Amino acid sequence: MSFLTVVLAETGHVALPMPIFVYGVIALVVFAALGFVVWSYRDVANRHQAKAKAYADAHGGARSGH
Asked: Where are the domains of the chain?
């Protein structure tokens, strides 16, 4: 018997603690949660436009040459 057939014969008897589709559901939930976290940071830079404008005015306006 070759090494590959021995490995395949042994891996055929692995007992998983959950059905296969549950792993996909878990991955879907994790990616959805991470997507929500990324989505929640949308437009964060523009939330305080008045503060940003006041800072820019106090420090010479728009930066140039950097």
From this structure: 18-42
